[in-house]
Write a structure and sequence with these properties.
The chain is mainly alpha-helical and 398 residues long. The chain has helices at residues 19-50, 54-57, 59-73, 75-79, 84-104, 108-136, 142-170, 173-194, 216-236, 239-246, 251-278, 280-297, 305-320, 322-333, 338-366, 369-389; strands at residues 6-7, 200-201. Strands 1-2 form a two-stranded antiparallel ribbon. The two termini are 23 Å apart.
């Protein structure tokens, strides 16, 4: 990215808003998040098959998140003026290859190599996707376009992870990653067909992503994002072991619970997404409060399936609105630097996934399931406090 870089309007048929390209990007986010998060629903069978502990298997999320975090922050600079459509298509194909390597992995080392490739693909796709929405929609419809794009994140929980868990129960956990590899190819094809050309006109001196956090609103939004995502993944990565040990639920019941969680996440995305366009601080605060409360309550809800489902619905609705509300906060804070700010937000998001799953693995292996959920609640609560005392605005930080 350059300090004076301009994102050219899409070329192609006239029209201020194009639904099919927006939905194509939503399919890409669905595929990316499903690929990244699939180990959550398959943690136990993966760890048994590879001969490692649940905590070590959870590192598959950490590996992907760390690679994606670094690349997504610098994605605009790394790809330079290349057409964003071409870049997105190419890296969705890389994602398909990464899932195929994961499916073939005979041990954790090869699986890690596949997850490194996945992290590279994710980093570029995430780093650019959040900035594409405002280029595909006119002013009044940007919030809806972003809600649709980030619905891919929520729907990945509804369809991707639970279907992967069911497929693993019917066949093998590797079948889930073969399905994701095929979906990656399909997503690349859909992007190639539906996206207009998205050129970048570059001028001026080279710059970088470091300027984005100098805005107070952007800095606050990034901090909020970091804490809630750290907390969420510290706890949610290990939901399956919590439900197996604490509630005594079978794999099929857990898959059903994750499906309910995912449906709640879609509801949260489409409820808090439009709200974030009007009142971003309210939307962010509601989302973080729900995640915090759910993580606190889950250890006490394992006495029955109904109480587990109630807490997972709360968690799903709340976290379903996190991506769109925090990204909207950052976008509103720095409207003149949408792609650079979105790239930094995506990098922090992915770094927090990596560190959250890592921290959760350390806690769960040493202190147990209840401790990891209380840790998750504490981290999310810090983000909530920041949201209550900050606001999205475009003023530079002192």
């Amino acid at each position: 990215m350059t300090d004076a870089e301009t994102l050219a309007p899409p070329t192609g048929p006239p029209g201020a808003h194009r639904w099919s390209p927006v939905l194509a990007v939503a399919l890409a986010t669905f595929t990316v998040v499903s690929s990244e998060m699939m180990p959550v629903g398959l943690l136990t069978p993966m760890s048994h098959s590879l001969g490692v502990t649940d905590g070590v298997a959870g590192l598959s999320l950490t590996i992907t998140g760390l690679i994606a975090a670094v690349l997504s922050i610098f994605a605009p600079r790394l790809v330079g003026p290349r057409d964003r459509r071409t870049v997105l298509v190419a890296f969705m194909l890389l994602l398909a290859l990464a899932d195929a390597v994961t499916a073939l992995a005979p041990d954790f080392a090869v699986l890690s190599a596949g997850r490194v490739l996945l992290g590279a693909a994710m980093g570029i796709v995430w780093g650019l996707a959040a900035g594409v929405g405002p280029r595909l929609a006119d002013g009044p419809r940007v919030a809806l376009a972003m809600t649709l794009i980030f619905s891919g994140v929520s729907i990945a929980s509804v369809l991707g992870i639970p279907l992967g868990a069911y497929l693993a129960a019917l066949l093998d956990w590797r079948a889930a990653f073969w399905a994701l590899a095929l979906l990656g190819v399909v997503s690349a094809a859909v992007l190639a067909v539906t996206l207009p050309a998205l050129p970048v006109h570059e001028r001026g001196r080279p710059g970088g992503p470091g300027g984005a956090p100098r805005h107070r609103g952007v800095a606050a939004g990034i901090a909020i994002t970091a804490f809630v995502v750290l907390g969420h993944f510290a706890g949610y990565t290990y939901v399956r072991p919590v439900l197996e040990a604490g509630a005594g639920l079978s794999g099929g019941v857990i898959a059903a619970c994750l499906l309910v969680y995912g449906l709640a996440g879609v509801a949260g995305n489409f409820t808090l997404g439009p709200l974030s366009g009007r009142r971003p601080r309210t939307a962010v605060a509601v989302a973080l409060a729900g995640v915090t409360l759910a993580a606190v309550l889950l250890p006490y809800a394992t006495g029955g399936v109904v109480t587990v489902l109630l807490v997972l619905v709360l968690w799903g609705v709340s976290y379903g609105g996190v991506s769109v509300s925090t990204q909207t906060w950052v976008r509103i804070a720095d409207p003149a630097g949408i792609e650079a700010s979105a790239a930094v937000w995506a990098g922090v998001f992915n770094a927090s996934i990596a560190l959250g799953s890592l921290a959760g693995g350390l806690v769960v292996d040493r202190a147990g399931n209840h401790a990891v959920l209380f840790t998750a609640a504490g981290l999310a609560a810090v983000g909530l406090l920041i949201a209550l005392f900050a606001r999205p605005d475009a003023r530079p930080a002192a």
